[in-house]
Design goal:
alpha/beta, 6-stranded mixed beta sheet, 24% helix, globular, binds inosinic acid, binds magnesium ion
Length: 187
């Protein structure tokens, strides 16, 4: 694979290549296109910022009409450790929520707190239906019981960056998912 970014040298190894990501996103988009074919209003809800790259690729591959929307939540207080609390930084403001089938698009599930909170929140706010889609899943890190409806790939308990995922706001633009060298986040 051809490396391009100056940040490539911070990567210990690539976990999911851009070619693999392309295959995974196509599979998920195909399933979504079948499963939601009778939906009156499918809304892909991108959880900022980490899901923005996945969202952009996924929405181009879905072959049924979709709307897009955005929420921003934060659960991480410092670089790589979860605070356990979910803060809504940007809320969803729609008057038609009761007509919307919401598909939450997430980059990664770790403790499971963000998605279980958001699913509950959107149901309480009256969405017609709420489903979840994640590119990456770290099931070994679960703190709450949560299973996504669509899952790209399970990964081991390693801190990953790239394809939208960051460490200290960097590495999001890398086209693959990689494991950061430990010395980068422990120094
Ligand atoms: P959860 O609420 O613990 O499931 O965390 C989900 C959020 O944590 C994701 O949306 C990411 O923003 C962040 N996160 C979890 N693991 C990683 C990682 O390995 N790299 C970068 N961000 C991560
Ligand atoms: Mg995130």
């Amino acid at each position: 694979m051809a490396y391009s970014s100056v940040l490539d040298s911070h990567i210990d190894h690539i976990l999911v290549s851009s070619e693999e990501i392309d295959v995974i996103t196509t599979k998920i988009a195909d399933k979504i296109s079948v499963d939601f074919k009778d939906s009156k209003r499918l809304v892909l809800l991108c959880i900022l910022k980490g899901s923005v790259v996945f969202m952009g690729d996924l929405m181009k591959k879905v072959t049924i009409p979709v709307e897009i929307d955005f929420m921003k939540v934060s659960s991480y207080s410092d670089g790589t450790k979860s605070s356990g609390r979910i803060n809504i930084m940007l809320d969803l403001h729609r008057s038609d929520l009761s007509e919307c089938d919401i598909l939450i698009v997430e980059d990664i599930i770790d403790s499971g707190r963000t998605l279980s909170y958001l699913v509950e929140y959107l149901r309480l706010n009256g969405a017609n239906s709420v489903k979840t889609c994640t590119l990456l899943d770290k099931p070994s890190r679960r703190e709450v019981d949560f299973t996504p409806d669509y899952r790209g790939i399970e990964i081991p308990d390693e801190f990953v960056v790239g394809y939208g995922l960051d460490y200290a706001e960097q590495y999001r633009a890398l086209p693959y998912i990689g494991v950061l060298k430990p010395e980068i986040y422990t120094k």
